[in-house]
Amino acid sequence: MASPGAGRAPPELPERNCGYREVEYWDQRYQGAADSAPYDWFGDFSSFRALLEPELRPEDRILVLGCGNSALSYELFLGGFPNVTSVDYSSVVVAAMQARHAHVPQLRWETMDVRKLDFPSASFDVVLEKGTLDALLAGERDPWTVSSEGVHTVDQVLSEDSDHEDFLSAIQL
Ligand SMILES: C[S@@+](CC[C@H](N)C(=O)[O-])C[C@H]1O[C@@H](n2cnc3c(N)ncnc32)[C@H](O)[C@@H]1O
Description:
Bound molecules: S-adenosylmethionine
Number of helices: 7
Helix content: 25-40%
Shape: globular
Distance between the termini: 16 Å
Order of helices and strands: HHEHEHEEHHH
Largest sheet: 4 strands, parallel
């Protein structure tokens, strides 16, 4: 995975790429997140806004998977999409996000593994992820041929209603 942090001291990288799958890695990386500026992997909301906005309705219940220290959820709120729930399995970053956004009680933050989402059925209209599947699938040797473990991970993340085949095609682009 590409490393974020242009203009800042680079964060500790995992010893091996598959370290990006470990919650311990992220917990350590997010120490101090409460006192640092947000960081968006692969670009912020403005980079994707033109693509995203036509797909969203203001009343949509949006779930952000693996929110990390990103400004995306707050920027969605500011952009007129107030119903946003964000999850990450790092309790460290979730606590930091709760503290940072305490002035916006509409935004919800939960410590949760995206492979074991604990919401009632049909809780959301839109699910967004940016960089989270990259982390989950880090360590795959060949992006064109995802291992059975990788496929199992995808099965855990996607609901039964989702179009699994389309997803696999998408990640093989
Ligand atoms: C590359 S960062 C992306 C963060 C953010 N989405 C962004 O765009 O800047 C990957 C994030 O996914 C989270 N993550 C990785 N695996 C996860 C899992 N199984 N469940 C929940 N969060 C996970 C990590 O803690 C980390 O915050």
